Amino acid sequence: MKIAENLVVQIDYTLTDNDGKVIDSSEGAGPLTYLQGAGNIIPGLEEALIGKETGDKIEASIAPDKAYGERVEEMSQQVPRDLFAGIDNIEPGMQFQSETDQGPVMVTVVEVADDTVTVDGNHPLAGVHLNFAVEVRDVREATAEEIEHGHVHGEGGHQH
Ligand code: ZN
């Protein structure tokens, strides 16, 4: 069965940046199962997998506009350290939910100074060119309920 819209796809993958650093991998975590065409995974990877079938191995190099978008510098800003009162050790890499005019945004601490903390609301992979090595493990029909919900049920999917 070739990968197309509304099919459930199971893949093993390794994701590296352009320096060859592994960002994410299904190794250890188990294969990723997703519903093709439902926006469960980044658009560039969905496109690269169209027409592939079980056993196929592909390498896909995906620019930020088909992945997590370009970085928006305005989303990085310095805020008073007082905002983090009650948190003893603020360190780069920590993530917080921040309320903004556009709704809740996950921000990452990038720098901590005496009086200020620099937080970044960009997705951690915004602006990053992604290189996927993927092996297709399984392709199956989705159930009507999975298509309606826009995600996979059962093993590797939503348990509800
Ligand atoms: Zn569901």
Task: Kindly describe this structure.
With 160 residues, the protein is mainly β. The chain has 2 helices and 9 strands; from the N terminus they run βββαββββββα. The longest helix is centred in the first third of the chain and has 7 residues. The model has no long low-confidence stretch (mean pLDDT 94). The site of zinc ion has 5 residues, from loops.
| Unreliable spans | none
Structural class, please? mainly beta
Strand content: 35-45%
- Compute the separation of the termini in Å: 27 Å
Q: Given the structure, what is the number of helices?
A: 2
Tell me the radius of gyration. 19 Å
Helical fraction equals: under 10%
Mean pLDDT: 94
Which second-level CATH architecture of the largest domain applies? Roll
Largest sheet: 5 strands, antiparallel
| Bound chemical compounds | zinc ion
Beta strands, count: 9
The SSE order reads EEEHEEEEEEH
Find the CATH topology of the largest domain: Chitinase A, domain 3
What general outline do the C-alpha atoms trace? Answer: elongated
The total tally of domains equals 2
CATH class label of the largest domain: Alpha Beta
List the helices and strands and how they pair.
Layout: E1 7-16, E2 22-25, E3 32-35, H1 43-49, E4 57-62, E5 76-80, E6 95-100, E7 103-112, E8 116-120, E9 130-141, H2 144-149
This protein binds zinc ion.
Core attributes:
single chain, 160 residues, mainly beta, Chitinase A, domain 3, Thrombin, subunit H, 4-stranded antiparallel beta sheet, 2 helices, 9 strands, 8% helix, binds zinc ion
